[in-house]
From TrEMBL, chain A:
A GO cellular component annotation in the UniProt record: cytosol
Pfam family, one: RILP
Name of protein: RILP-like protein 2
Subcellular localization, as worded in the UniProt entry: Cell projection, Cilium; Cytoplasm, Cytoskeleton, Microtubule organizing center, Centrosome; Cytoplasm, Cytosol
PANTHER family: RILP-LIKE PROTEIN 2, ZINC FINGER PROTEIN DZIP1
UniProt keyword Protein transport, yes or no: yes
GO BP field: cilium assembly; protein transport
Residue ranges that the Swiss-Prot or TrEMBL entry lists as coiled coil: 135-162
The RH1 domain, residue ranges: 19-105
Region (Disordered): 1-27
GO terms, molecular function: dynein light intermediate chain binding; protein dimerization activity; small GTPase binding
Keywords, alphabetical: Cell projection, Cilium, Coiled coil, Cytoplasm, Cytoskeleton, Protein transport, Transport
From TrEMBL, chain B:
Protein's UniProt name: small monomeric GTPase
Organism: Anas platyrhynchos platyrhynchos (Northern mallard)
Residues passing through the membrane, by range: none
Subcellular location: Cell projection, Cilium; Cytoplasmic vesicle membrane; Cytoplasmic vesicle, Phagosome membrane; Golgi apparatus
SMART domains xrefs: ARF, RAB, RAN, RAS, RHO
Domain of life: Eukaryota
Gene3D superfamilies: P-loop containing nucleotide triphosphate hydrolases
Reaction(s) the record says it catalyses: GTP + H2O = GDP + phosphate + H(+)
Entry GO CC: cilium; endoplasmic reticulum membrane; endoplasmic reticulum tubular network; exocytic vesicle; Golgi apparatus; insulin-responsive compartment; perinuclear region of cytoplasm; phagocytic vesicle membrane
Keywords: Cell projection, Cytoplasmic vesicle, Golgi apparatus, GTP-binding, Lipoprotein, Membrane, Nucleotide-binding, Prenylation, Protein transport, Transport
Main location (coarse class): other
Membrane topology: Lipid-anchor
Cofactor(s), names only, from the UniProt record: Mg(2+)
Length: 174, 200
């Protein structure tokens, strides 16, 4: 890339820091909307010179250089933005997944589960339903009834062996 | 009122790891039968067997506990009323032997101080699968000053002997009462203070 040749007629517009052409020197990532307008005016001027100006080859070369430069900027911006977009898309997807998991966890109520907790499947017919105290009570009652049954069986045996004699005949009496 | 067809009532308790054969040991003693299907005991169960020792009719109320950890809060509440406790392990199961100290600690924590203890190494018919030598059982029993038997509920080895020996040991330290005494005090354990268990 060579500097634009001959600067004859446009002296008035290029006072400070190279004027609108400066925008073409900038990094694409530092471009502002004003810079884009500057590039647009520079390219427009070149096109005007091509159709009317006296030095067509020089203007053509300059325009070619500027168009290449603009395309380079576009390329840099596009690849940069597509990279950023891809990153954002991946981030979005992973956040979505995370949210989904958290929602499901919240539905199960397992979000606050500590190491001593367990999840109960309410649709499982064999799920735990009774407390230890209830089991204790049931077992106690079962064993009491069993003890009573044994006593009754003993008495029955007693009656039978006494050939249906009245109770006092049994050992211990009523 | 309750009629008494016996002179004394002894409450015994079977404890030990799940699957060592506590229920089978008891079933052999109470019904002289054996069942190979394993049904895990739910919480606590009991059986009654009346035996005659030294001319006395002794009713043994034998509590069979679930060995599974999840029932422990239920089963340990039955330690207190026991006058004799049989701690059972399985000679083909090393873990059940290792846990003896844990069960002994449970006894210390939950049972009466003067409870009569006994150690049983069950399944002694399965010699080919033995992993706990008899000497190791004898040793740990000696260390704790308790009796020891190797038993087999399946082959009916030492089952009755173990229960009768435990009942005799309890009878020996039971204060002499009138044979037809109305109330058999079981809550106190009928202990004679200062009685020392003798080693096998």
């Amino acid at each position: 890339p060579k500097p634009p040749p001959g600067r004859q007629e446009e002296e008035g517009e290029e006072e400070e820091d190279g004027g609108p052409e400066r925008a073409l020197e900038k990094s694409p990532f530092e471009l502002t909307a004003g810079d884009v307008y500057d590039i647009s005016s520079v390219v427009g001027r070149d096109l005007l010179q091509l159709s009317t100006g006296p030095r067509v080859p020089a203007a053509l070369a300059r325009l070619q250089f500027r168009i290449v430069r603009v395309l380079e900027m576009l390329e840099a911006l596009v690849s940069e933005s597509s990279l950023a977009e891809e990153q954002l898309r991946m981030e979005r997807d992973s956040l979505r997944r995370e949210l989904e998991e958290l929602r499901r966890g919240a539905d199960r109520g397992s979000l606050s589960l500590g190491p001593d907790k367990m999840v109960i499947d309410l649709t499982d017919p064999n799920r735990p339903r009774f407390t230890l105290q209830e089991l204790r009570d049931v077992l106690q009652e079962r064993n009491q009834l069993k003890a009573q049954l044994l006593v009754v069986q003993e008495e029955l045996q007693c009656y039978k062996s006494q050939n249906l004699l009245p109770p006092p005949a049994c050992q211990g009496g009523l | 009122m309750a009629k008494k067809t016996y002179d004394l009532l002894f409450k015994l308790l079977l404890i030990g790891d799940s699957g060592v054969g506590k229920t089978c040991v008891l079933f052999r003693f109470s019904d002289d039968a054996f069942n190979t299907t394993f049904i895990s005991t739910i919480g606590i169960d009991f059986k009654i067997k009346t035996v005659e020792l030294q001319g006395k009719k002794i009713k043994l109320q034998i509590w069979d506990t679930a060995g599974q950890e999840r029932f422990h809060t239920i089963t340990t509440s039955y330690y207190r009323g026991a006058m004799g406790i049989m701690l059972v392990y399985d000679i083909t199961n090393a873990k059940s032997f290792e846990n003896i100290s844990k069960w002994l600690r449970n006894i210390d924590e939950h049972a009466n101080e003067d409870v009569e203890r006994m150690l049983l190494g069950n399944k002694c018919d399965m010699e080919d699968k033995r992993v706990v030598p008899k000497a190791k059982g004898e040793q740990i029993a000696r260390e704790h000053g308790i009796r020891f038997f190797e038993t087999s509920a399946k082959a009916n080895i030492n089952i009755e002997k173990a229960f009768l020996t435990l009942a005799e040991d309890i009878l020996r330290k039971t204060p002499v009462k009138e044979p037809n005494s109305e109330n058999v005090d079981i809550s106190s354990g009928g202990g004679v203070t200062g009685w020392k268990s003798k080693c096998c």
